[in-house]
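Student: Hello, beginner here. Can you help me understand the protein record under this note? Any guidance would be welcome.
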Amino acid sequence: MGSNRSHSRFSAALRPKPLFQKNLQAMKARRVVGVSLSLLLINLAAIMERADENLLPSVYKEVSEAFNAGPSDLGYLTFIRNFVQGLASPLAGVLVINYDRPTVLAIGTLCWALSTAAVGASQQFLQVALWRAVNGFGLAIVIPALQSFIADSYMDGVRGAGFGLLSFVGTLGGIGGGVVATIMAGQQFWGMPGWRCAFILMATLSSLIGFLVFLFVVDPRKTVGVNHDAGNNFDRDELIEKGNAGASSVWFESWMATKAVIKVPTFQIIVLQGIVGSLPWTAMVFFTMWFELIGFDHNSTAALLSLFAIGCAMGSFLGGLIADRMSQIYPHSGRIMCAQFSAFMGIPFSWFLLKVIPQSVSSYYTFAVTLFLMGLTISWNATAANGPMFAEVVPAKHRTMIYAFDRAFEGSFSSFAAPLVGILSEQMFGYDSKSIDPINGSPREAFALSRGLLAMMVIPFGLCSLFYTPLYKIFRRDRDNVRLANLKEEEMI
């Protein structure tokens, strides 16, 4: 009897006090609110990033007229930004070692906002080129940090949906940026060309989002329980402490992370397909100019490209969900099959869009349906396969670095696509920028540009689908190696 009473007193002593339970519940509630607010602001940053990317291509025609630039010159602007972005992307991995990601994101956002405003104020073509390079530097810092933030905020089974949501809202931002710029481009505001006002407006909004990210976003590695992996949080905190010890420690840890990432075979294969697979997407920056050369006005062009962007937004989210489901049924190959299907679909859609449909304003509805269905099916790769698979083949502390080097390789090589489209259009298919009617367009130049686009889309889409094949054997082995290493580290802790 006495033993039972003592046991009851002992159990009561262990039982959480009501006040402690209330405090614990309040802490959990604050954590949930903090995570939700952080993800909301991260998605807003993604919206502004994609809007900024779509800004210049949406006003190519006006920039061409303002600076007397042809397709190859405009292609070089995209090349400069993408090339600098690719070269500077590893810097994101270095910065994240020594600073939390909200700070890194805010720095990158303010950098691209400054350069966007400067492009709107530029009076010479070389000034535009310089500021596009600065823009690429800002994006190089932001994009890998965004991707690793999402990877740390979701578990393996739903990570495709997480990347899909990021891509979905980002694409909506791209739609907004493209539509606003295209509509404003044909007007004057306070005596200033509309396309310049669009750049200044976008820069102002980007600065505001960057400031909010710096103030309110909480890094997942500071919140135990967000990714349900205390061991990974310990590793990241330990890495930050080492980075804060001094510059030599930062560079040493960066070098170790770089070696660990580059030697992963899954990373090598995905980067290889990405280098080729990014070429069509880079070439698509000429879609706005192509439709306007056909004879569509600014509003019609904006509507067509919005349908394509909506299809891409829905497709990226749908692809992430489908791949999550497929990965449960086929754990070692489901994501790869989704990626190959999506890349392959780019071949028939590109052929039909650029070669089969008559290039006339009377084909508006055929263009609209084709663009929507094309976007719905060719936009799966990043959310269904690349992003989630990268997160599974390296330790959590190396995630920013693997996304950074992916952008470095893909961005550097794919940046050649835009000038190649211009060169092919001018040198092989007879594009002549002096023959363009600024009001009614030019069917002859539209045809030449479409042939340059076709060459840079059909073949790369086919090679991209083919290059995923080795992952059926390699991905499982790399993922198992990381899981085994994580188990050993947790046992040591």
Summary: The chain has a mean pLDDT of 80. The domain at 36-220+227-492 is CATH 1.20.1250.20 (Growth Hormone; Chain: A;).
